[in-house]
Write a structure and sequence with these properties.
301 residues, alpha/beta, Rossmann fold, five-stranded parallel sheet, two-stranded parallel sheet
Length: 301
């Protein structure tokens, strides 16, 4: 698109300058962010007249589940009568898992997520069956028995015919080990897993007001209230994407475009969640240190 005018001499460009979706606060900071890109159309972007709505800078050093729970607390709990839509967005699918777990714990309905939930995998049942069938370990505590199976599964080579995006057996066994901590018997663990699956079947609905998605998946979509989690160094922009890129500068600009997309999905409010000890460079580009509640970056400039 940037080179289109060179390919088609005489092409007339018409700028669509008014964003009718977002609050003025969101437009102002999203534009400030994207202006750091060198490869872009230089144009004016402004909000519609009378476009109110806040940006919430949620500086929070707590663990991810706690932070996401606080986001849900700030929002009115979605109900069947509540037509306002909400979205929790992240850079990657895996980063959405803590939020989905919190929604299940709080019995908040949500739309089918873009990632397979580990607890729903058939490998969970296979692992439980292997633990139950290991009669030689019958006298050991539950955690020791699961750990033995996990160690054995970790030695298995990957099946080349398996879906590369499917969870690995060792990942499932490690998750099962973590889930088993509160339980002393295998039957109690099985009951807890069955209850979790029942909650997923009940709460995961196509008509739910809450969506979990990545920035990539939300291009062209919009929600009344948006929270972007993981606005931290190494997460957004993705350190892995930058390290693997042939042209890191262009990769960084693409990461910035993704952040712009995520921020501008909001119609009424935008919440940006970050650890104040490691804020994303994108936050520093769009907000002052004082606004973020952090110290000035000595490496800035």
């Amino acid at each position: 698109m940037l080179a289109l005018a060179e390919a088609l001499p005489g092409l007339r460009r018409v700028d669509l300058e008014v964003n009718y979706r977002c609050p003025a606060t969101v437009i102002g900071r999203a534009v400030r962010l994207i202006e750091h890109n060198e490869e872009r159309f230089a144009k004016t972007i402004r909000s519609r007249p009378d476009a109110p709505g806040p940006i919430v800078l949620a500086a929070d050093a707590a663990d991810e589940p706690v932070r996401i729970g606080r986001v849900l607390d700030r929002w009115t709990a979605p109900t069947d009568e509540d037509t306002q839509t909400r979205a929790i967005l992240a850079r990657t699918n895996r980063e959405l898992l803590p939020g989905i777990a919190i929604a299940l714990d709080r019995r908040v309905p949500f739309r089918p997520p873009p990632i397979e939930l580990l607890v729903a995998s058939q490998l969970v049942d296979a692992c439980l069956d292997e633990v139950a069938g290991a009669t030689a370990m019958a006298g050991l505590p539950l955690l020791a028995r699961i750990e033995a199976v996990r160690a054995a599964w970790a030695e298995r080579p990957d099946d080349p015919d398996e879906d590369p995006d499917a969870p690995r057996p060792a990942t499932i066994a490690a998750a099962l080990l973590a889930w088993a901590v509160p339980y002393s018997t295998l039957d109690a663990l099985r009951e807890a897993i069955a209850a979790r699956r029942a909650a997923i079947a009940e709460l995961c609905r196509d008509d739910a007001a809450l969506t979990f998605a990545t920035a990539h998946a939300t291009k062209g979509l919009e929600f009344d209230h948006v929270a972007v989690i993981g606005m931290e160094r190494g997460r957004f922009p993705s350190a892995r994407s930058l390290a693997d890129a042939v042209e890191p500068r262009r990769a960084l600009e693409e990461e910035r475009r993704l952040a712009y997309v995520a921020w501008t999905r909001a119609r009424r409010s935008l919440t940006l969640v970050y650890d104040p000890a490691t804020p994303s460079a994108f936050l520093r580009e769009a907000f002052s240190s004082e606004e973020l509640g952090i110290e000035d970056d000595p490496d800035a400039g």
